[in-house]
């Protein structure tokens, strides 16, 4: 690429196959997003019901929705108003059987939630990678619940591990109450037994073993506004977080009402600490400690700041393309491109003389137009894309061959050069437009419905087709018009068009 484009203008982004790096295919577990939605709703219901003195019992959350029991039938109207308030812009299906209630989202709302979850996860991954400092990451949806992530420039195993951990970390922060009544039996309790108690068993990172927590969280990471790395009294890195106004109020109210009890800080279903509440905690801030390295604490802070993923993700496929392979690809592709270019230009000059030189000039301009358009619009150049450029050279030279042949046909009929050029372009233009428009439609369809390598090929081919139409029909015709006074005086048609005689 010319140094001018590299230093003064926008750069072309090299694809993973040219630059080397990490390619991952991620699966988004949207069922978990639905569970988290119901869990958050159950938490809000429990908190607001207590504030309004609505007595509820056995609040449970699952993939099927929320279920609970209303203890006082006289509070039914207040409960209905509360559910309407919590519903917001969503649509609930509410079923009542005596004092028993079940609440869930409508099927349409569930589908909308799944779609929004994919978009939210894509946005969070992009945000995290930007803060991580990776240049030009590519994050796109692929299929219904899958995401393709391409990270050019990943060279070491440590960079790969950090990037993978940063992407796959849900960063789902929760504050949960310890089930003090039954926690002493946590080590010998099963998950099913914990569920029957309205609790959940989680791993305790700090102390080891298991800890029993109330299933409905006090609050979650949706209320988090900031996270950063600080150092504790032992000069160990910890992550300090800050909650929004609503989160700070809930945090303060709970801590004030539960002095002497324990509250757990849970991150991605692991308990990092479960301190005893000594007094009401105001200010809406806290810390997460867990023997982190500085890099781990920094990555966790990035993940928390970027927002919690509403659904966990799993790595379905991972491929590493080494930088050496990328360099080899670039080298062989450039050799193929330059070699093909030289052979085509040599043929054009030998067969069409000066008309061939003009056609070669059009090919060079065509190549520069492709590079310029891709740079301006931030398109990614891939190995199939370079193959598309080579193909475009062939398409562009076809157009010039058609034009030159039409001009030669008219010249052999003893017509003047000016008329030959005029009729040559008129006769050639229809064939050029027909063939190129057909190819352009095919490129558009490939780009619209293809993925990955196919898109790269379709993009460069499409840009090249448009550039070849401009250079072949407009560009070369302009050169001929500028040279027309000189051409009308020449007696050597062979020198200009490779024609030995007029008849």
Automatic annotation (TrEMBL):
Alphabetical GO CC annotations of the entry are:
plasma membrane
Q: Where are the transmembrane segments?
A: 334-352, 359-379, 385-403, 431-450, 456-480
Keywords from UniProt, A to Z, are: Cell inner membrane, Cell membrane, Membrane, Protein transport, Translocation, Transmembrane, Transmembrane helix, Transport
Q: Does the keyword Cell inner membrane apply?
A: yes
Protein translocase subunit SecDF P1 domain ranges (all copies) = 120-180
- In this chain the Protein export membrane protein SecD/SecF C-terminal domain maps to 312-479
Q: Which Pfam families match?
A: SecD_1st (PF21760), SecD_SecF_C (PF02355), SecDF_P1_head (PF22599)
Where does this protein reside within or beyond the cell? Cell inner membrane; Cell membrane
Recorded hits in SUPFAM superfamilies, A to Z, give:
Multidrug efflux transporter AcrB transmembrane domain
Major localisation: membrane
Report the domain of life of the source organism.
Answer: Bacteria
A GO BP term, please?
protein transport by the Sec complex
- The UniProt record lists the SecDF P1 head subdomain domain at 206-311
Name the membrane topology term: Multi-pass membrane protein
Describe its assembly. Forms a complex with SecF. Part of the essential Sec protein translocation apparatus which comprises SecA, SecYEG and auxiliary proteins SecDF. Other proteins may also be involved.
Say which family it is in.
Belongs to the SecD/SecF family. SecD subfamily.
Q: Please identify the protein, giving its name as recorded.
A: Protein translocase subunit SecD
High-level lineage: Bacteria, Pseudomonadati, Campylobacterota, Epsilonproteobacteria, Campylobacterales
């Amino acid at each position: 690429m010319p140094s001018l484009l590299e230093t003064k203008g926008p750069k072309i982004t090299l694809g993973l196959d040219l630059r080397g790096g990490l390619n991952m295919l991620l699966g988004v577990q949207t069922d978990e997003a639905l569970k988290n939605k119901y869990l958050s709703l159950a938490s809000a219901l429990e908190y607001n019901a207590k504030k309004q003195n609505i007595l509820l019992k056995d609040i449970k959350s699952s993939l099927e929705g929320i279920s609970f029991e209303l203890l006082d039938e006289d509070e039914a109207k207040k409960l209905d108003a509360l559910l309407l308030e919590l519903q917001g812009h969503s649509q609930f299906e509410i079923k009542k059987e005596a004092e028993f209630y079940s609440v869930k989202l409508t099927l349409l709302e569930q589908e909308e939630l799944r779609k929004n979850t994919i978009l939210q996860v894509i946005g969070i991954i992009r945000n995290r990678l930007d803060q991580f400092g990776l240049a030009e990451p590519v994050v796109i949806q692929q299929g219904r619940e899958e995401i393709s992530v391409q990270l050019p420039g990943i060279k070491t195993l440590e960079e790969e591990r950090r990037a993978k951990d940063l992407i796959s970390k849900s960063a789902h922060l929760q504050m949960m109450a310890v089930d003090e009544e039954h926690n002493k039996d946590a080590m010998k309790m099963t998950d099913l037994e914990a569920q029957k108690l309205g609790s959940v068993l989680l791993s305790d990172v700090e102390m080891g073993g298991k800890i029993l927590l109330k299933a409905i969280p006090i609050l979650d990471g949706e209320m988090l506004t900031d996270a950063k790395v600080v150092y504790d009294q032992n000069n160990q890195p910890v992550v300090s977080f800050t909650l929004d106004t609503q989160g700070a109020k809930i945090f303060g109210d709970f801590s004030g009402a539960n002095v002497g009890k324990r509250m757990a800080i849970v991150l991605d279903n692991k308990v990092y600490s479960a301190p005893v509440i000594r007094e009401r905690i105001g200010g809406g801030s806290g810390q997460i400690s867990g023997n982190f390295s500085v890099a781990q604490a920094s990555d966790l802070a990035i993940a928390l700041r970027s927002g919690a993923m509403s659904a966990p993700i799993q790595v379905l496929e991972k491929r590493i393309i080494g930088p050496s392979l990328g360099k080899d690809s670039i080298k062989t592709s450039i050799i193929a491109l330059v070699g093909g270019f030289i052979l085509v230009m040599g043929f054009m000059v030998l067969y069409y003389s000066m008309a061939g030189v003009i056609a070669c000039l059009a090919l060079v301009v065509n190549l520069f137009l492709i590079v310029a358009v891709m740079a301006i619009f931030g398109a990614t150049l891939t190995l199939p894309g370079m193959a598309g450029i080579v193909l475009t050279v062939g398409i562009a030279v076809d157009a010039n061959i058609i034009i030159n042949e039409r001009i030669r046909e008219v010249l052999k009929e003893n017509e003047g050069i000016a008329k030959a050029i005029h009729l040559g372009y008129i006769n050639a233009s229809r064939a050029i437009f027909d063939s190129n428009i057909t190819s352009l439609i095919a490129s558009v369809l490939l780009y619209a419905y293809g993925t990955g390598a196919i898109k790269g090929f379709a993009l460069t081919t499409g840009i090249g087709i448009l550039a070849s139409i401009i250079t072949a029909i407009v560009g070369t015709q302009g050169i001929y018009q500028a040279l027309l006074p000189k051409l009308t005086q020449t007696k050597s048609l062979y020198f200009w068009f490779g024609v030995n005689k007029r008849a």
